[in-house]
Amino acid sequence: MLKSFLSLFLKDNCPLCKRPTEDQICRDCSRQVKSYQFKNPRQFWQGDLPFLAWGKYDGKLKKAIATLKYDKHPQIGELFGYWLGETWQELGLIKTNIKPIVIPIPLHSQKQKERGFNQAEMMAKGFCQITKYPLKVKGLIRIRATEAMFGLNPQQRQENIKQAFELDSSFQKHPPQTPILLIDDIYTTGTTAKEVTKLLQKKGINVLGIAVIATKAPLIEKIT
Ligand SMILES: [Zn+2]
């Protein structure tokens, strides 16, 4: 009680450098994180499942993602959503008359309980505040807990994620005519995005692609 009362008068600290700030992260950290922003994020918007990645999964951006998830600062997720939304609007990747339904990639309920929030959902909320697209937080449900993808080869990743998701019951009964835009924090090999897309497409739902804050795919770095 006392703490929440005091917090009205005390400034918050930047979760990255602990210096006082009134923003989600301080101006200095924001500048450092933004130095990992891609100059040409349009390059990934191609192929069967196009994706938009805001920045490179490295340095201060990588640290900010870890702080968001493991030190539990959901406000960084919302900030990422704003940045991603601004980039999305600048690029004009789809026709302006299309307003896709935005769906965050879900965490398994147990994991979300432990963390207290889903970082992709926080990003999707920020993204929709900028773009004014409709948000469907529970469009997808993670029905199976999966291992962390780190250290798994592509085949193991595919096996790991197989049948891990399900469509929300309202989507099962009435598949939307409007296309879907997926949101996640990191794009690695795209295994999760492809699995989810397959599930949506099976119901005749069109998936435009996936937007993420960071990617580390080495193949992609070469053409940056
Ligand atoms: Zn800072």
UniProtKB/TrEMBL annotation:
It comes from the Bacteria. Gene3D superfamilies: 3.40.50.2020. InterPro entries: ComF/GntX_DNA_util-trans, PRTase-like, PRTase_dom. Belongs to the ComF/GntX family. This is Alpha-L-fucosidase. It comes from Aphanothece sacrum FPU1.
